[in-house]
Design goal:
The structure is a single chain. The chain is α/β, with parallel strands linked by helices. The protein has 2 domains: 231 residues, Aldehyde Dehydrogenase, Chain A, domain 1, CATH 3.40.605; 154 residues, Aldehyde Dehydrogenase, Chain A, domain 2 (3-Layer(aba) Sandwich). 42% of the residues lie in helices and 19% in strands. It has a 7-stranded parallel β-sheet with strand order 10-9-11-8-7-12-13, with helices on both faces. A 4-stranded parallel β-sheet has the order 5-4-3-6, sandwiched between helices. Helix 2 packs across helix 7. The longest helix is centred in the first third of the chain and has 17 residues.
């Protein structure tokens, strides 16, 4: 196989980006409609490619949790097609007039939304990102250069080929989406230095990848995706509601970044809440790593339930860990202030939740917690572009410049000032 030439890929992306900036909404809609349809009609070939990745993952000893991030099914492909259709339901952001005014001297001044240009993506494991990225970039008028992880190479290649064929079929250059067809990690290093061609770089993967990109990228980079996510169960919580929320946040899909990692429980209701929560966790095989007070309350329950192997003493690093699996840290706190202090020290600015029926406590939590999304009486699993009505996301940013939280169409655009006069000169 011929080795990819990233310089040529970058130059082509830059060339195509100028054409994309003026591509009609109708052409983009036609291309993405074809992508959504093909994800369903071509499911067999995509799943065949994914099966090769899963086979390699199993033989290499990849954990079941990480295999789940890699796995595609007919249902997941249908959901992915739904995400593409969700993007189609959004207004085309390119050319949107954000604001306008006429100055006293008669100048007409607008802020008008424009594409960023070329967006690079370096990602691991999750092949659905290939379609999310391609679709969002196309609709926002950006060219995309993608380098996926070796563990999902066959799946990514199949999905990128599908997207390129659908784009070309709509009369748009296929090179609006380019996938680096190599498992060689040297291409990651090279992309980090391609400031000449790439306007913004997005890493999606583990902490090591995100830190490397943040430290070494020569162009602006979005950091995020590392989620040490908390749910605080307040003394005024509805305990039945709290058990359901915490269980969903941990168990519904534990291998993703918005899954719960740590439960904080107010001491006044810990004795009533923790046994119910633990029973819910243990029925699904979730290991609890508890602080001293948690252990004191749960050890008798664990013995009675034959769940001793699922209750362990927490160590300090557990409270700083994104588990990405069926484990959760638990700590008993004495007040909302203790909960806020814990989140400030151990959180990752990703997804944080409170369960309470007290409006003042709820407001304090929502106002004071610094995270890309904060939730009251709902699961952290909702921190997702599709769930927020964006259709999909290219990333969940935990930076505040230039975006915070799920990044949809508008978050991968910029703006320019457009000024129209009639001979005015400045005195």
């Amino acid at each position: 196989m011929t080795k990819p030439d990233l310089e040529l890929i970058g130059a082509r992306a830059r060339e195509v980006s100028r054409e994309l900036a003026r591509t009609s909404t109708e052409s983009k809609v036609a291309a993405l409609t074809a992508v959504a349809d093909a994800l369903v009609s071509d499911a067999d070939s995509i799943l065949e490619a994914n099966a090769k990745d899963i086979e390699n993952a199993e033989s290499s000893g990849m954990s079941p949790e990480l295999q789940d991030r890699l796995l595609l099914t007919e249902e997941r492909l249908a959901d992915l097609a739904g995400s593409v259709r969700g993007i189609l339901a959004q207004p085309d952001p390119v050319g949107e007039i954000i604001e306008e005014q006429t100055r006293p001297n008669g100048l007409k001044v607008q802020r008008r939304r424009i594409p960023l240009g070329v967006i690079g993506l370096i990602y691991e494991s999750r092949p659905n990102v290939t379609i999310d990225m391609a679709s969002l970039c196309l609709m926002s008028g950006n060219a995309a250069i993608m380098r996926g992880g070796s563990e999902s190479y066959e799946s990514n290649l199949a999905l990128a080929s599908l997207a390129r064929n659908c784009i070309a079929g709509a009369g748009i250059p296929a090179d609006a989406v380019q996938f680096v067809e190599s498992k060689d990690r040297a291409y990651v290093e090279q992309m980090l230095g391609m400031k000449k061609y790439i306007d913004m770089l997005i890493p999606r993967g583990g902490a090591e990848l995100v830190r490397m990109v943040a430290e070494r990228a020569t162009m602006p980079a979005i950091t995020g995706g590392i989620g040490v996510c908390h749910t605080y169960v307040d003394r005024a919580a509805d305990l039945e509601k709290a058990v359901a929320i915490v269980h969903n946040a941990k168990v519904q899909r534990p291998s993703v970044c918005n899954a719960l990692d740590t439960v904080l429980v107010h001491a006044e209701i810990a004795g009533a809440f923790l046994p119910s929560m633990a029973g819910s966790f243990w029925r699904d095989g979730v290991e609890i790593r508890g602080d001293r007070r948690t252990l004191a309350l749960l050890e008798p329950v664990a013995t009675e339930s034959n769940a001793n192997g699922l209750l362990k003493a927490a160590v300090d690093e557990d409270f700083d860990t994104e588990f990405l699996g069926m484990r959760a840290a638990v700590r008993v706190v004495d007040s909302i202030d203790d909960a806020l202090d814990h989140i400030e020290e151990h959180g990752s600015n990703h997804s944080e939740a409170i369960v309470t029926e007290d409006a003042d406590t709820m407001d304090r939590f929502l106002n004071e917690v610094d995270a890309s999304a904060v939730f009251a009486n709902s699961s952290t699993r909702f921190n997702d572009g599709g769930e927020f009505g964006l259709g999909a996301e290219v990333a969940i940013s935990t930076d505040k410049l230039h975006a915070y939280g799920p990044m949809g169409l508008k978050e991968i655009t910029s703006y320019k000032w457009v000024v129209v006069g009639d001979g005015q000169i400045r005195s």
